[in-house]
Structure formats: C-alpha cells, structure tokens
Amino acid sequence: RCVALRCVALQVRTPRDLKGLSGLVLPGGESTTIAHVCGNAGLMPPLRALKESGVPVWGTCAGLIFLAGECVGASEKKGGQALLGGLDVTVHRNFFGSQVSGSFETTLLAPPCLAPHGGTEDFRAVFIRAPAIVRVGEGVETLCELPLAPERQCEVDLGTRGTKFVDKVAIACRRGSLLTTSFHPELTTDTRWHSFFVAMCRESGKQFVLPAE
Questions:
Q1: Which residues are part of a known binding site for L-glutamine?
Q2: Please, which pLDDT band fits residue 164 given cuts at 50, 70 and 90?
Q3: Which residue(s) pair with 174 in the sheet?
Q4: Could you report the per-residue pLDDT of 84-111, keeping only the tens digit for each?
Q5: Active-site residue, 186 included
Q6: How many domains, the chain?
Q7: Considering the entire predicted model, what is its pTM?
Q8: Dihedral sign, CA of 107, 152, 142, 6?
C-alpha cells in the first residue's frame, strides 16, 4: 500500500492476478526474460487484452521495450523475444551501452505533464543499461527528450525503415492509456511520475475484466 499516492500495488504472477486491476506497471529488468516468464505463465494473451481494454499500462526501461512496436540494435535477440507492442515507436535496446559503462544519472527539465503534481522545474533520471526511443510514430506524444553529446550522436539502423541520424532521443512517451519511460523513476525519491500514472488510472476509471477461458 502506498499511502502518499493513495493506491495499492499488487504483484502479478498469473493471469488471475490481472483481474480488477486499474493499471499495470511493466518494470525494468531484462526484457527477454520478462517475455519468457510471461509466456510460460500464460500471461501474454490476457496482457494483450488488458492493454487493448484501455486500462493504463506503464513500461519502464525493459517494460518500454516490451510495449514497443519495433526494437532494433538487438540482433542477438531476433526470434527470441515476444513484444507486447501497442506503441508505435522504434526502441534501440541498450542504446547507451552496457550496465557498467553505459549507466548514468542526469537532471532534466520536468515536462508539463508533471506540473500538476508539484515539485521543482527539473527531475532526476536514472538510466541503467537503458533503451532509447529513436523513432516516434504518428499519434505518440513525446513527453521528454534527452539531447545527445556530440560523441553519442550517430546513424541508427531502423531495419526496413532505413537509417536515421539521431542527435537526441525520446525517453518518455505516451499514447492514450500507454506510458513509457526509459529511465527508472522508482530509484529516486521524486514520486511525480508515479503520481502522473496514478492520475491516468483514476481518469480512466477502468478495471480489467479477465476474459473467460
């Protein structure tokens, strides 16, 4: 139970655990492992049903990859990972590098969506072997971007879409009931991103009805 946010968080391990949920957080971790665990637990069909029902879903880091429509920079993963999909973006896995050399923290300007939840004009973002959104599709709102240092700017292979030069990447996006962040808000004491998602859930007013087996 989170008193500050006036909500209750539950663990989801089986399809039955999804019943009655007002929102779902797909956490960080290892996206391929998350996909395998969801597949083995029979969670993929009900997760897709929940996503399509309009119940808000928030994917952070690996959860962002899981919600993406396309994933690049992951040749070793081809054929080995199912994506839940739903967000028309292209995500570059591990864009910033390995967990040891590519993890970092930075301070960024807080987007307007956080303004109703108080706090300062900026926020602290923690990136751990993080993905980055290198293409944002139509209908997807970019909430926050990260400008890249000159040495990080590069041409990105988008597969069948060709290549694209990137000098900044999207790190938070939303389309309707779907929210994604490539950083880890849960690793700071700033709860505004959590408040924003809880507000999405309350505004939605939906609770997931588990499809009949």
A1: 29-31, 93, 128-129
A2: very high
A3: 141, 179
A4: 899 999 999 889 887 777 899 999 999 9
A5: yes
A6: 1
A7: 0.92
A8: negative
Indicate which residue of 38, 61, 144, 173 is catalytic.
61
Q: Are 190 and 117 in contact (CB under 8 A)?
A: no
φ, ψ (nearest 5 deg) of residue 58: -120, 120
Pick out the residues of the known binding site.
29-31, 93, 128-129
Domain extent at residue 71:
3-12+22-204
Query: Is residue 168 in some structural domain?
Result: yes
CB 42 within 8 A of CB 15: yes
What pLDDT sits at residue 213? 57
User: What CATH number does residue 179 fall under?
Assistant: 3.40.50.880
Active-site pick, 7, 117, 154, 186: 186
CA separation for the pair 174, 138 (Å, rounded)? 11
Confirm whether 199 is domain-assigned: yes
Q: Which residue has the higher pLDDT, 78 or 3?
A: 3
Tell me which of 71, 113, 184, 194 is the catalytic residue. Answer: 184
Does 184 participate in catalysis according to the annotation?
yes
For 148, the token pair is 């890249």
Please indicate, yes or no, if residue 163 is contained in any of the structural domains.
yes
Residue 101 lies in a domain: yes
